[in-house]
Write a structure and sequence with these properties.
By secondary structure, the protein is an alpha+beta fold. It has one domain. It is 21% helix and 31% strand. It contains one helix and four strands; from the N terminus they run ββββα. The mean pLDDT is 84.
Amino acid sequence: MNDTGWFKSSYSTSGNDACVEVRLTGATAAVRDSKNPDGSIQVSRASWQDFLRSTEAR
């Protein structure tokens, strides 16, 4: 998979800097706070997909 670049949820509004951003690259997903663009955590794509599935159930 190609690098998707950083993206925000479609629920985020412009001017709202309290967002989580995600970047998908190969086998990993990077997650960061939009207020701290220099810091991010890396998780496996499988872990990210598991997280998303767990939030859909709520």
